[in-house]
């Protein structure tokens, strides 16, 4: 708490972090889902979380992505730019699914680009963070090299 104690939104965000850390669920997916839901609630983002483990498919890990996309009728899969190292464009193209990688636009905040969501929430209001969420680009893998 000391590092952020003077941050403008510390009093709003720190209790959320305490609740996240205090989550007793030993299942990583459930722990992360709880974390995500608490942050969405704080941000007034209304979304339904679906756990891939609830969808019965024989594939696991990265091999489960294309079947999940097909299960939900998705024609595009968006991943963080680091995913360019593990996903093959052709695998998605063969299934008529567009593979994109999300990158934040430069200058969205005055904070360093690669700080965590915690840093962002501590320094910006939910309204400001929601505005930042729309400042991204979707790129093809060849655009990241």
From TrEMBL:
It comes from marine sediment metagenome. InterPro entries: WbqC. This is Uncharacterized protein. It holds the Pfam family WbqC.
């Amino acid at each position: 708490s000391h590092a952020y104690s003077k941050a403008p939104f510390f009093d709003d965000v720190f209790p959320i972090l305490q609740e996240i850390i205090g989550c007793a669920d030993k299942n990583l997916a459930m722990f992360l889902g709880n974390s995500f839901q608490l942050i969405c609630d704080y941000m007034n983002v209304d979304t339904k979380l679906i756990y891939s483990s609830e969808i019965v498919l024989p594939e696991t890990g990265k091999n489960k992505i294309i079947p999940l996309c097909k299960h939900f009728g998705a024609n595009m899969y968006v991943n963080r730019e680091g995913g360019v190292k593990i996903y093959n464009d052709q695998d998605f193209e063969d299934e008529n699914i567009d593979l994109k990688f999300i990158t934040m636009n430069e200058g969205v905040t005055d904070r360093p680009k690669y700080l965590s969501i915690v840093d962002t929430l501590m320094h910006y209001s939910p309204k400001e963070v929601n505005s930042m969420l729309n400042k991204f680009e979707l790129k093809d893998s060849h655009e990241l090299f």
